[in-house]
Amino acid sequence: MGYSVGQVARVAGVTVRTLHHYDEIGLLRPGARTPAGHRRYDDADLDRLQQILFYRELGFPLEEVAELLDDPDADPVEHLRRQHTLLTGRIDRLREMAEAVQRAMEARKMGINLTPEEKFEVFGDFDPDAHAEEAEERWGGTDAYRESQRRAASYTKEDWLRINAEADDLNRRFVALMEAGAAPEGEEARELAEEHRQHISRHFYACSYEIHTGLAEMYVTDERFTRNIDQAKEGLAAYLREAILANAAHRG
Q: What is the pLDDT of residue 121?
């Protein structure tokens, strides 16, 4: 008995109106009709509909679909090979689009426009996105936060590696002062604290002395910052705080 137009519409995920249109233009004529004139589709019709929908999904106009399917010299195997090639190309394009969207989401979250692999190479086990939501809640309404987001989104992997290298160099020099017994309120430590402030201003946002001292307090009151800074040397966070406060008092 075959399949009714309603059954085919439900199975194929198209409308009855679409099937009527395909019949009217000769793209998909049902294999039979009932005595009352109702359309009945057979398995061959369903195979043809599957191919029609495939080409439509790839953006082919109905006229071109008809030419492809009605070519008397068409080889069924070649037909499948063409579909496979087209589908593979579509998958590649979709994958590229998905990767672009993923990068955009990462940039939106933290302003860091790097792939996951590049992010690991730059930041190692530290995941900047893990604190993105908290940072936005605490500072999202500030000009400094917006400026930091804008700048960070423009940095490449090489930029981040250079910025991190500068930060590591500052830490090494602070550690050297600590080990030499230099007081954090002394001139050398204050000068280094000023370099630290300028490093932030140069790469992230305009870091005033008020902002800088606020960061200094956070370095010792938030154990996550303390733990991260003290990886270079135990007590570095506290030493850095004292140097920053001394510099602000001296210059502010």
A: 56
CA distances from 23 to 9, 32, 54 (A): 13, 12, 18
For the stretch 127-183, pLDDT in tens is 555 444 444 455 545 677 678 777 877 788 888 889 889 999 999 999 999 999 999
- DSSP-derived 3-state class of residue 41: strand
β-pairing verdict for 3-4 and 32-33: unpaired
| Predicted pLDDT of residue 136 | 47
Q: Please, is 56 exposed, middle or buried when counting C-beta atoms within 10 Å of its C-beta (0-12, 13-18, 19+)?
A: middle
Dist. CA 182–CA 189, nearest whole Å: 7
- Would you state the structure tokens that stand for residue 160, as one six-digit string? 């981040």
Rounded to whole angstroms, the Cα distance separating 112 from 105 reads 10
C-alpha to C-alpha distance for 163 and 214, rounded to whole angstroms: 21
d(CA 46, CA 239): 76
Q: Tell me the β-bridge partners of 15.
A: none
pTM of the model: 0.49
